[in-house]
């Protein structure tokens, strides 16, 4: 019998790629998405689609009525800036929404849950690359809600009063990029924000001095680690960094994208604005744990991944 996977946020960038791969592998997929940042055209035609919100218990119950065996919980409010502008919504979506999903797992005795955590839980780490066992001190409201939800997931997985195994795994994802990342959402995905600026002949705005650095990981590698972990008992109850263990400055990223379009900072307008609240200075994942336990190792190098992403954006 085909196993069923519920993908919350399955119309979005990451969730839709997960859905496609799962279907290719023979899983039956149910997608729950409110289409606030996702797009219906991203949803695989072979998936069951439910327009609904994880904040709404009735919507979550309706998705679980399809009898999922596995949950990929990806739905969330994913903007650091929006988390400061509207902390109540950030809390409601990322924490209360996760609690609704977890509670429904308990009610239906669903034994497997993957949770989409974030590098923002680390705040500004004292040591790079960051290990999963360091003390997390998130500096953005978004990071706080992602860490709180992660702890709800794992505290539930550790409960000794459950009469069934509830095996959870969290993936602290660094800067995931690739096709289907929104070209119209100014709050998500610095890679596609810069690409969209150029396509629209707009100035590129860098917040800060541009020397802040990030660890960019391709969507294909991200999907690989989630799916490889489904039946891997070594991942049960664990938290994993998902990155490449390399850092690229924002200035370098802009240079790479400009060069792909035949420009440089000498002939294209690049504006430097003040840094925004909650922005992390440097981020780099230590992926030793994922390499050892899963085992997983990213395959897409940044140059190849960027070339593919830009080609997709151009259409």
Report on the architecture of this protein.
By secondary structure, the protein is an alpha/beta fold. The chain has two domains: 200 residues, NAD(P)-binding Rossmann-like Domain (Rossmann fold, 3-Layer(aba) Sandwich); 89 residues, UDP-galactose 4-epimerase, domain 1. Helices cover 37% and strands 17% of the residues. A seven-stranded parallel sheet has the order 3-2-1-4-5-6-11, with helices on both faces. A two-stranded parallel ribbon has the order 7-10. Strands 8-13 form a two-stranded parallel sheet. The termini are far apart. 45% of the residues are buried.
Give a nutshell description of this structure.
The protein is of the alpha/beta class and 315 residues long.
Coarse shape: globular
Mean pLDDT across all amino acids: 97
Report on the biggest sheet. 7 strands, parallel
Q: Which CATH class of the largest domain applies here?
A: Alpha Beta
Structural class estimated from helices and strands: alpha/beta
How many angstroms does the end-to-end distance come to?
39 Å
For this structure, the quaternary state is single chain
- Would you give the CATH topology of the largest domain? Rossmann fold
Count of helix runs: 10
CATH architecture of the largest domain: 3-Layer(aba) Sandwich
Radius of gyration: 19 Å
Annotated CATH homologous superfamily of the largest domain: NAD(P)-binding Rossmann-like Domain
Kindly estimate the percentage of residues that lie in beta strands according to DSSP. Answer: 15-25%
List the domain count as a whole number: 2
Order of helices and strands: EHEEHEHHEHEEHEEEHEEHEHH
